[in-house]
Amino acid sequence: MKHFLRMFVQVCLYFYCKCLWRCLKFVVRKLTGRCELQRICYNTKPGAARTMKIEASLKGSKSKRLQTSVSVHPDAIEKTIDDIMELKRINPDINPQLGVSLQACLLQIVGYRNLIAEVEKLRREPYDSENPQHEEMLLKLWKCLKPNSPLKARISKQWCEIGFQGDDPKTDFRGMGLLGLYNLVYFAEWDTEIAQQVLSDSLHPKYSQLSKAEWEKKKFDKAIGYSFAIVGINITDLAYNLLVSGALKTHFYNVAPEAPTLTHFQQTFCYLMHEFHKFWIEEDPLDIMEFNRVREKFHKRILKQLQNPEMALCPHFAASESLINM
Length: 326
Fold this sequence. Notes:
Pfam families: ELMO_CED12 (PF04727). By secondary structure, this protein is mainly alpha-helical. The protein has helices at residues 2-32, 36-43, 48-59, 64-67, 77-87, 96-124, 132-145, 177-190, 192-203, 212-215, 228-245, 249-255, 262-283, 291-306. Helix 2 (36-43) runs antiparallel to helix 3 (48-59). 32% of the residues are buried.
């Protein structure tokens, strides 16, 4: 009986707050002459803060048309904006900037959903050694990381030199499918110098050159390395979970002026790999068995950073200046 009463009170409180919120929105609109979407766009600067508020407003609307606007096809966004303006009785001639702002927000919101689908598709596709494209990517990974050491055979113990567990890397991609390979190749191809340095440090951590000024005080005689490729697949899993949980919205809405793409995700992976490497050295684990502890601590630190609506994980991938006037 006591449990039932508690649930009843919670339900009543929920509906009371919901009705109170709707009444408050109605009063504010009458006082300001602007709907909630207008107030958000005019009072919040572009980026994650604005887009996340717009997303919450549309999802929480009592109108089905507004609720479904966050999941339309990208080609339908322009018409969706017209529908929203019509539904909210907003004259586009008097408020031309509002349509531009809403379009930028919807492109980000819809783009994020589509990015999740694209990433999920790659994650579910297994590595196939009979597929020439898959094999070509794998060999490209080796060439980018070890340009001066030719691979003697496709099945070789040499793969352990870049952090795979055995003589055939295909078995290591099972957890993340092609997504793990895509990310590793992107890191090695587009951020080659850093990737090669991280690989070298993972094999010989006591000779690490990254953040040397900070780390030279530490004792590296017992520094523990790690398997570069395996950790890359693991960090891919971390990035994937940040994406699917919605935690990366803060970052992507701040760095992508329109729809976030797979390239944005891969750039984020590069950042996470670099940052995790530094974090691993700073943590100075006793042995590789501490990997899960260090990873979880790193994960929590990234999540905390992403709670800041101003956060952009990769400063060198900052948002386009075109956002300023949207």
